[in-house]
Every structure is written in structure tokens, then in C-alpha cells.
Amino acid sequence: MRGNLFAVAVDLVILTVREGVLSTLLVRRGVAPFLGELALPGGFVLPHEDLLDSAARELVEETGLTITGHHLEQLASYAAPDRDPRGRVLSVGHLALVPDLPEPQAGSDAAASAWYPVAEVGHLAFDHDRILAAGVERARAKLEYTTLAATFCPPEFTVSQLRGIYEAVWGTELDPRNFQRKVTNTPGFLVPTARKVSTGRGRPAQLFRRGEATSLHPPMLRD
Amino acid sequence: MRGNLFAVAVDLVILTVREGVLSTLLVRRGVAPFLGELALPGGFVLPHEDLLDSAARELVEETGLTITGHHLEQLASYAAPDRDPRGRVLSVGHLALVPDLPEPQAGSDAAASAWYPVAEVGHLAFDHDRILAAGVERARAKLEYTTLAATFCPPEFTVSQLRGIYEAVWGTELDPRNFQRKVTNTPGFLVPTARKVSTGRGRPAQLFRRGEATSLHPPMLRD
DNA sequence: CTCTTTCATGTCACATTGACGAGAATCGGC
DNA sequence: GCCGATTCTCGTCAATGTGACATGAAAGAG
């Protein structure tokens, strides 16, 4: 067919919000190129795998999370001729949005993986900086016109928690009252849980679950 | 490195608006798989090429257009194990937006290429239907919040022509007066040409050039 | 019991939008 | 040369969404 063949890898930008800080899962490389540097979790696509399947498999291996209920989408592909010293490797970046995990993780596949605040991430192996930047920008954009912020939340959550997601991802502050009006007036975004309340320090908040709506019309603007 | 290698191709969704109809450039295949069927223009990535360079080269070969001033972006990658009977081929879809070309083309690379109204396109070779659908959807979305509609237009154009682009891409009708107010009130979208006017059948229209603005705030909604 | 904190609801000015009216400038036909 | 059709351009008005801000409701801390 053609002589110039590529190895194909999937790399994952896995985003979550931990204690109000947008964070991503990174692994410290234990093998040949860029040894010891931080990189996105990822791996080569197996012979009979499709891209999204491969990304889902990597996600499970790194976090133990299955895709059910979570969000995983393709970002973009990177194939600069010199991006990998071993030869021609095309990497398909993916974006995963997950809720704050109970524990980072223990004896999983890549034990060297941990969460890092996105704002503090410096240089990464390969061209993973660019992929991470693309993932963060995509997430920021998608919060504007979709209901995806809820995928960062546990199954039941308050409006404050949801607002915290927006503030962490966007790096801005939002007016609690206007935010509440916006999300509660958007049909299908939030379904109130059976009168349950939770508590922190002030008045208890109503708990919600995700609604069926996926898009936000009109969008939530961040200016 | 790994045994499972891929051939990597770029495929192009080239969109334009011809006589008020959103159209795409397709080629009739003259070789082995899917011989005789319609397909997106594209080809394999050369040994030292990056993806966007490869797509730009294909665009030149198919249309004679250089990228200067036009729009070319990556869409997504497709790598289902059985998408190509010859073996594992990963295709990186790209989207190009071009103005209505003076002539389809003549003795260029793929002489079998021609413009087809998007609405009338049936089944395509490989999984090119999906790529085309993704390209059209991306173009529709981008008209909402960017000034990219102008890339469909010649260097100088009227507000009516621009509105025709929106109507063709979205398949809707827009109020001429509200549309005019919207685009002329958006700073940096349109720069009025030195008082020139054009003509069709009614009152002559002001000619504009593209401004420097790339995003639309607030966006143009299509409902 | 009062203060503080956070949730929840409401008000008001302002900008944008959608629907529409009407004048300005051209052309084709009589 | 006049008339009507056509299209560009500007303007009006009500409805809607947003930003800024006040205020009440429901908890815990001292």
C-alpha cells in the first residue's frame, strides 16, 4: 500500500476538579524516550482496537474508571515528523472528564501516576503540552454551551458544587445568585433530588442529579 | 517499537457555497477499493510531512488553491479496524472552507473531481460519510461564534452575500434587517470598502472586506 | 439568642434579539 | 420618462436574558 507507516498511540487528558482546582492525571515516564519526565497517560493502539476503545481501555488502566456515565471524546491528532525520536508516531489526543476520585490510586498499571493542578504543569514529554492545552481549552469551551460540567460532579450535587466546577475550569468567579438562576431555569439541566439537603456551614442546599439536557441554550457566557 | 503499524491518510471536506447551495468537492475513485464510488479527496501522508501540510498539499492538488487566506483545520481521526479492506489505515479528516471557485477545475490531479450539493450526497467510499457529516456540522457550529463565514466569500462582498452563506450552510432563512444590524454592529467583522457599490436588481449594496475579528461575541444564534 | 455563613428568591437597569415599518436607490417594463 | 417591483439601509418596539445588587430563609458557632 505505502511504505511510510506510523505507530499510532492514544494519549489522554484526564481532567477533574480537586478541592476547587482543575487538575490532570500525569505519569512519570519509566522508559526510554523522555525517561523521568511527566507525560500524559496513553499507549499504543492494539491491532483490532478502534481509537475510542483504546482510549477507554487506557482510562480504565490508569484510573479504574469505566466510561459509563463519564465523558470521553477525541481531541485531535498530532504527527509532527520529529515528535518521537523512535520514529513516526501519530498520537490521537483524547479528553476525559471525571469526578473527583476518592483516592488517587494505588497499585494500578502506571503506579507513577498522580494528579497535578493544570496551572502548575510545566513542560511535558513529547508534544504533550500542546495536547493538554487543547484539552483544557476544549473543556473550557464546552462548559459554555453544554451541560458537561455535571460530569465533574458526583451523582448528586448542589448548585454550589456545580458553580465550583465552572470557577475552577474557567479560573473566574461567578455570582452565586445569577448562576443559580441560570442553571435552575435551564430545563433539563438539573433534576431536584427527593427533597434531600446537605450541609456545610450555612443553610442546607438542595441536591440535584443530572438532567437529560446536553446543550445549553442560550449558552453560559464567561466574558 | 510495536508491530501494529498504520498507514496514515488525510481526507478533506472542502466546502463552498455555489449559487446558494452548500457544496463539497468529491472525487470518483479510479483505483482498487471502492472503485467507481464517490469519496473525499485525500491521500497518504508523506514521510516527512506533518498532517496540516499534507492536507494543504492535497488541497492545492485538488483545487489549485493555496491556503493563504483560506481556512483549513483538522477535524478528527478515524481508525476503525475494518474501515479499509487493504489493512489498517488511519484517516485524519480535515475541513477546508473556500470561496466559490471560478471554474470547477480541469486537468488537475484528480480530474474526476467535482462539486456536489451536500444535501444530495449519498453513500461515500470508506467511512467518508461520517467525515463529511462531521465537517458540515463543524462548519455550522463555527458560523455561530466565529467570523469564518467570510472565508466562503470573495475578497469583497456584500452583506447579502454573507447572509446567503449563513442561509446555505444552516439551511435556514434569516431576516435581512436583523442580520445586517448584527454583523455591522460587531466590531472588526466587516470593514467598509472605499464607498464602492455593486449591483444586482435593487438598490446597490455596500461592499465590505473581512475585518480582523475572528470571534463573535455574542454569538450568532440559529435556534 | 444573636452573629455569621450559605442557600434561595426577587428586583431593576441595560443590552440583545426577533418581528416589523418605512425610506432610499436601482432596474425593467410601459 | 414614469411606475412598480426589488433590494439595501435605517429605525421602532416588545420580549427576553444578563449583570449588579438587595433581602429573606435556614443552618451552625459562640
Features:
homodimer, 223 residues, alpha+beta, Nucleoside Triphosphate Pyrophosphohydrolase, Arc Repressor Mutant, subunit A, 2 domains, seven-stranded mixed sheet, two-stranded antiparallel ribbon, 9 strands, elongated, DNA-binding
User: Overall mean pLDDT score of chain A?
Assistant: 92
CATH class of the largest domain in chain A: Alpha Beta
- CATH architecture type of the largest domain in chain A: Alpha-Beta Complex
Number of helices of chain A: 4
Radius of gyration of chain A: 19 Å
| Sequence of secondary-structure elements of chain A | EEEEHEEEHHHEE
What's the end-to-end separation of chain A, in Å? 50 Å
Q: What does the largest sheet of chain A look like?
A: 7 strands, mixed
Strand residue percentage of chain A: 25-35%
Largest interface summary: A-B, 33 and 32 residues
Reported by name, the CATH topology of the largest domain in chain A is Nucleoside Triphosphate Pyrophosphohydrolase
Low-confidence stretches of chain A: none
Structural class, judged by helices and strands of chain A?
A: alpha+beta
The structural domain count of chain A equals 2
